[in-house]
Amino acid sequence: MGPETFIYTLALLRRMRKDYMRLLDFAKDAMANAYAPYSGFVVGAAVLTADGMVFTGSNVENASYGLSICAERVAITKALSEGKKEFVAIAVVGRAGVTPCGACRQFIYEFGAGIDVIYLNDGKTVVKKISELLPEGFTLKRS
Ligand SMILES: [Zn+2]
Known about the structure:
alpha+beta
C-alpha cells in the first residue's frame, strides 16, 4: 500500500466517520416522531442507502402490542417502498443505549451481511457489521 493509498484510505475513513455521525443525528431526530404511548420507550433509526440517501424511522406501537414495529424496520421499509434496496449502514438511537432486536437484525441481514450498524454504548459510538450482531443469519438459498 503506497502513501497515496494510505492517505486516500484515511480520507475515506474520515468521510465515513462523518457520514455515520450524521446518520446518528438523523436517528436522534427521528426519536421525536416515535409513537410509543404504551411503553414510552422511544427509538429512532436512520438508514443510509448505497446512493447516499437517508431514510429515517421511529418505533410505532399499537394497542394490540404484537403489531408494534421497531424504528429500524420502519426506516428500511420506507426506503424499500421508495425503490431503494442497497444499504450501507443503519443507525439506531434510544434514550438509553439500544441495539437492534433479534427481529430487526434478521430484517437488516436480509439486505447484506456487510451492512454497518451504528449505535451508542455509554455515549460512545459503536459500529459493527450486521453479521457480527447476527452470526450465521438466515438466508434463503436461491438457485
Ligand atoms: Zn427491532
